[in-house]
Design brief:
alpha+beta; Creatine Amidinohydrolase, Chain A, domain 1; Creatine Amidinohydrolase; 2 domains; three-stranded antiparallel sheet; 15 helices
């Protein structure tokens, strides 16, 4: 029982430590990384002390209902009302630079999804909707629009939510009512969801054929899209386009508050994997290690894991996205674990490979050290702010050289042949953007130079199939990947996941430590 109590105290202290983030920040629309301090809004703080607010109910944590998660002035953990407002303003300013005087943005929430009849999956909000509103509830729609007689970035923000439904809330819990939307999310107005199409009809008349920004090709809420079809088919808009590329451009560069959340989630991800190393001894089931990393992430303050982890023992490490996690890992084998936590809507993504018996074999250490050498070279290159594609080229060039040193590739290969051959042993990109999603801002090109405030992964690997008859037999079946999360800074890079050991000597020192 004492162990359980100490674990609970660890979780509480860890989560509170994440909330030491400036409560009120103001973003610049020119760059989300340019942030200046403002005094806290005294009106908002006084409302927090108003007894009437204790009666406010919502479908997500609030400062007075979950003070261990959300601080006064924040909508979600670590992100203030002011920052969400500035994100909306920055988007409308970008859209105002496009053709057309008036603009309307429609962002639906992701609907609740069910695994079987009446049993829902864990809810995850559409990321763009979350970024602009902080709304964590289904069945809502955020509408942003310019004002009659004025141009962007001046705009109105309206959140449409379902009306109070006691029968539904008996099963799913409280929801934020239209009348509470402004207080919960900081939008200008809250209206019933049933008024959405009527409101849009009035906007068309008032704004005179505005440009509509709505992701119609792959809507996050098909049911809502069906309801909007007649209105969209009327064609009274000046044009329709997806706002996603504009939103992803804003999401790419992290604000100081976002950087703190990224530091927290990447630190927790690394610590959870390190704790799993300590709890490893041979033989072990892959799903036991899955449970261990999940437990340690949550006990350190994570909301949950950011994605289904890869826990691949032995030759299964050659399956890049192996998530079955249902085999036994035998003495002498390694395990490749790719796992990350989610904290306040921001994701970590860390990979380590370690010997479950505690000591690398000679061949295992050779491959591991080769991958580590490649990773450190790529991280050093990232400090010069290349593109992701340039990082990939640097990885292939360096990987080819170390594969020659391992006698896996012939010394006779030239540079071009070497890079092509290296790709056969690491058939994935070395990096991707990281943030609210694990594979963040997918619409951002890989040929864009990195900028301060951008978070990326660096994840080279070497995968040697058991069926490869052209390599030394001691390497057959080995799969190694080392992945860390880095922040591009003005001075270079910051490795956010340094909480997890990566040097082979450090790994050997802690594997199985819980049993020693």
């Amino acid at each position: 029982m004492e162990g359980f109590k100490s674990g609970v105290r660890l979780c509480y202290r860890s989560r509170r430590s994440l909330l030491g983030i400036p409560g009120v920040k103001r973003l610049s629309c020119h760059s989300a990384s340019q942030v200046g301090e403002e005094k806290p809004d005294a009106g908002n703080l006084s409302k927090m002390l108003d007894g009437r607010r204790s009666l406010l109910q919502a479908g997500q944590p609030l400062p007075h209902t979950h003070p261990h998660l959300v601080e006064p002035g924040q909508v979600t953990s670590g992100i203030s009302r002011e920052e969400y407002s500035q994100r909306r303003e920055c988007l409308m300013k970008r859209l105002g630079q496009e053709e057309g005087k008036h603009h309307v943005v429609i962002l639906p929430a992701t609907p609740r999804r069910y695994m079987i009849d009446k049993i829902p999956y864990l809810y995850r909000q559409d990321t763009d909707m979350l970024y602009l509103s902080g709304c964590l509830e289904p069945d809502c729609v955020l509408v942003l629009h310019t004002l009659p007689g004025s141009c962007a970035p001046r705009h109105n923000s309206v959140m449409f939510t379902p009306r109070h439904d006691p029968a539904q809330e008996l099963w799913d819990g409280p929801r934020t009512s239209p009348s509470a939307a402004s207080e919960v999310w900081g939008v200008d107005t809250g209206l019933p969801l049933t008024e959405l199409t009527r409101y849009l009809g009035h906007l068309e008349k008032d704004l005179g054929h505005p440009v509509l920004w709505y992701h119609a090709s792959s809507p996050p809420n098909p049911e809502l899209h069906h309801r909007l079809q007649a209105w969209l088919a009327a064609g009274r808009q000046a044009g329709t386009a997806s706002p996603k590329s504009h939103i992803h451009t804003l999401r790419l560069i992290k604000s100081p508050a976002e950087v703190e959340l990224m530091r927290a989630t990447c630190r927790i991800s690394g610590e959870a994997i390190a704790a799993t190393m300590r709890a490893t001894r041979a033989p072990v089931a892959e799903n036991h290690l899955f449970a261990t990393v999940d437990y340690h992430a949550r006990m350190r303050g994570a909301d949950h894991l950011a994605y289904p982890p890869v826990v691949a023992g032995g030759p299964r490490a050659n399956i890049i996205h192996y998530i079955s996690n249902n085999q036994l890992i035998l003495p002498g084998q390694m395990v490749l674990m790719d796992a990350g936590s989610e904290v306040g809507g921001y994701s970590g993504d860390v990979t380590r490979t370690w010997p479950i018996s505690g000591d690398f074999t000679g061949a295992q250490r050779d491959v591991y050290e080769a991958v580590l050498e490649v990773q450190q070279a790529v991280i050093a290159t990232a400090a010069h702010r290349p593109t992701l594609d340039q990082l990939f080229s640097a990885m292939c060039a360096k990987l080819g050289k170390v594969l020659q040193e391992l006698c896996i590739l012939p010394l006779s290969y030239g540079d071009g042949q070497l890079m092509r051959a290296a790709y056969q042993f690491c058939p994935h990109h070395v990096s991707h953007y990281l943030g609210m999603d694990v594979h963040d801002t997918p619409l951002m090109p890989r040929n864009k130079p990195l900028s301060p405030g951008c978070c990326i992964t660096v994840e080279p690997g070497i995968y040697v199939s058991e069926k490869n008859t052209e390599v030394p037999s001691r390497y057959l079946g080995l799969g190694v990947r080392i992945e860390d999360d880095i922040l591009i800074t003005e001075d270079g890079v910051e490795v956010l996941s340094d909480s997890c050991p990566r040097h082979p000597d450090e790994i050997e020192a802690i594997v199985g430590e819980d049993y020693k």
